[in-house]
TrEMBL record:
The middle region has homology to RecA with ATPase motifs including the RadA KNRFG motif, while the C-terminus is homologous to Lon protease. This is DNA repair protein RadA. The keyword Zinc applies. GO terms for molecular function: ATP binding; ATP-dependent DNA damage sensor activity; damaged DNA binding; hydrolase activity; zinc ion binding. It comes from Nocardioides immobilis. InterPro entries: AAA+_ATPase, DNA_repair_RadA, P-loop_NTPase, RecA_ATP-bd, Ribosomal_Su5_D2-typ_SF, Ribsml_uS5_D2-typ_fold_subgr, Rubredoxin_2. Coiled coil: none annotated.
Amino acid sequence: MASTSRTLRPAASRATYRCSECGWATAKWVGRCGECQAWGSVAEVGVTPAGRTTATPVTTPAVPIGSVPADEAVHVASGVPELDRVLGGGLVPGAAVLLAGEPGVGKSTLLLEVAARTAARHQRTLYITGEESAAQVRLRADRTDAVHDELYLAAETDLGAVLTHIEDVRPRLVVVDSVQTIGASGVDGVPGGVTQVKEVAAALVRVAKTRGITVVLVGHVTKDGSIAGPRVLEHIVDVVLHFEGESGSRFRMVRAVKNRFGPVDEVGCFDLGPDGITAVTDPTGIFVERHHGRVAGTCVAVTMEGRRPLLAEVQSLVAPASQERPRRTTSGVDGSRLAMVLAVLQQHCGIGLGQRDVFASTVGGAKLTEPAADLALAIALASSHHLNPTPGGVVAMGEIGLSGELRRVRDVQQRLAEAARLGFELAVVPAEPGSPGSFRAVDGMRVVEAPDVRTALRLLHLDRALKVVESG
């Protein structure tokens, strides 16, 4: 009897689809990644059968961790103190830094200042511009006094040419403005595409690590404020910084989102003017208005930006409704927090603003997203409603609960010390358990503790509506 046999063959290579943002894989094409929810990031890649990986020679032998020199990764001051504050002490040799921000916020101006300060310390610096011509950068350098013999400038959009410039100049600091404008020959896609940005960033990071130089990359942001390009771009760099600022304000902030060499809860403050960008070591004066007398509808809040306390003035205006549906307009204040505070004032304090137009804003373009500003907002609303000015020299901090209680906030002592340093005389804070209404002193400033928002308004004599309700 003839026997039949089947020969087992290795499975053929099959195609799979992978997300360029997060690496998620699927057997069929989809328009939206199932992991990171990015649109249009899933593309076909070839998958070959698993092979056997053999051992290869190592680049450097493994050594005990105690014998690794730690002085090779020390911070070097950039010459801009506020940027050094965010970086944790300065730039680290061999590190790759990504600075992202909206167009026109001042990224190029800030990095040109950093490059000039570094060159002034006789450390050769290379500034690669892919968005402007060399003449345009020179004009900005003349305006901001950033011209130095050790600062080299090149206008390039090809990755190979950029690497050649680094080989020839041998700098200690390289600034690439921006990574989305540099293209790599032999790589699919156009400059700024996912594949191109990954290749350009990976090549520049390899140069930084092998040569021990600091590379700073400028990145674009999308309409929703996130960094443009693949998410892997943020993973391969060592530091990710966000440069923020309103178009109608000169105030700018640099915030660390990722930092392998320092904290991620620090912010740096800058003032962008016609003569360049300058560090603002005491930004409180920008966010606090100096009134000639007592004004109704204002109160100063103490918020934390990272580990830095900032004082910001909250202003409110309560007026009779001009339309059938009262308006609620905010600027710099969270609209949902305003709605909650209005409900608490009506339910627990007898201050009904349901038929009133309410406007709330901050001074200087400050954005108050921290719940610690709830109490200052409530005091400003009550003061405006009663046309009763808030006592002078008062700051307030505390989160308001739905039952009207005041909740403790973090870093109270640091906030109080900053308010006392700036000359404020009275601070209203949430009460410690078992000590409602107690008084104490901090650096010459009186501190009064209130268990709820109703008590806080009574202590500041802003409870005229409460007296009417109680007597009725």
